[in-house]
Amino acid sequence: MTFTGFGDGAVEFYDGLVADNSKAYWTDHREVYEEHVKAPMAALLADLEPEFGAGRIFRPYRDVRFSKDKSPYKTHCGGFAPPYYVQVGPDGLLAAGGYYGMAPDQLARFRTAVDDDRRGTALERILATAVEAGLEVGGEQLKTRPKGTDPDHPRLDLLRRKGLMVARRWPPDDVLHEKGCRDRVRQVWRAATPLAEWLADHVGPSEQPRR
Predict the structure, then answer these.
(1) Which CATH number characterizes residue 131's domain?
(2) Burial (CB count <10 Å: 0-12, 13-18, 19+), residue 8
(3) In DSSP terms, which residues pair with 145 in a beta bridge?
(4) Residue 132: is it exposed, middle or buried by C-beta count within 10 angstroms (0-12/13-18/19+)?
(5) Alpha-carbon distance 136 to 165, whole Å?
(6) Whether 191 contacts 133, CB under 8 Å
(7) Structural domain tally of the chain?
(8) Cβ-contact 45, 189 below 8 angstroms
(9) CB neighbour class for 57 (10 Å; exposed up to 12, middle 13-18, buried from 19)
(10) Domain limits for position 39
(11) pLDDT string in tens for the chain (211-residue length)
(12) From CA 203, how far away is CA 60, in angstroms rounded?
């Protein structure tokens, strides 16, 4: 199946799920999800696979074991071709690249690299270029500086980050339902590739065992 856009009912499906996040709503509208959301997302990831690698679709169910919010379903559909990400939901389209969050060992390597003048300055240039291309820098960030960090460090803002990604969003529009949506995602992922390469070179995957 070649990607031709998300279905006309994709945004409306998630608008309804936001209003009624229940098993009854999901059961009644599952066919809309399968046809207008999941199948196009699978086709999109397949189209992008030759350039960015194999992707997968995140499960639509929320992990509520440790959450006060017991709503059973995610109000968006996410696709992941590490470290690239795409999401469709009631707010439209999101395309991003980077590390949304880092494990402690990754964070230690990240801060060591940022502290280094050569590698840290290179990262600053990469992020500046991404911003010039229309992307936003995001990721979880500490409210205060990491313990032991010089308050006058030239890259303090980066050292405070626990995740680092670049992204662009589009509100719901006609392009979401056309093959041009794929071009939007591809352009963002290409613009995010220098950051992805920097992170792969200087941080890499977590070496800690999964719990």
Answers:
(1) 3.30.930
(2) exposed
(3) none
(4) exposed
(5) 8
(6) yes
(7) 1
(8) no
(9) middle
(10) 10-202
(11) 799 999 999 999 999 999 999 999 999 999 999 999 999 999 999 999 999 999 999 999 998 787 888 899 999 999 999 999 999 999 999 999 999 999 999 999 999 999 999 999 999 999 999 999 999 999 999 988 888 888 889 999 999 999 999 999 999 999 999 999 999 999 999 999 999 999 999 999 998 765 5
(12) 29
Exposed, middle or buried: residue 78 (CB in 10 Å: 0-12, 13-18, 19+)? Answer: middle
User: β-strands 77-81, 84-89: how paired?
Assistant: antiparallel
pTM: 0.93
Q: Quick one: tokens of 141?
A: 């960030």
Residue 58 within any structural domain of the chain: yes
Return the exposure string of 172-191: e unless at least 16 CB atoms fall within 10 Å of the residue's CB, then b.
Answer: beebbbeeebbebbbebbeb
The answer to whether residue 74 is domain-embedded is yes
Write the DSSP assignment of the chain as a string of letters.
-------TTHHHHHHHHHH--SHHHHHHHHHHIIIIIIHHHHHHHHHHHHHH---EEPPSB---TT-S----B-SSEEEEETTEEEEEETTEEEEEEEESS--HHHHHHHHHHHHSHHHHHHHHHHHHHHHHTT-EEE--B-SSPPTT--TT-TTHHHHTBS-EEEEEEE-S-GGGGSTHHHHHHHHHHHHHHHHHHHHHHHT-S--SPP-
In a domain, 87, yes or no: yes
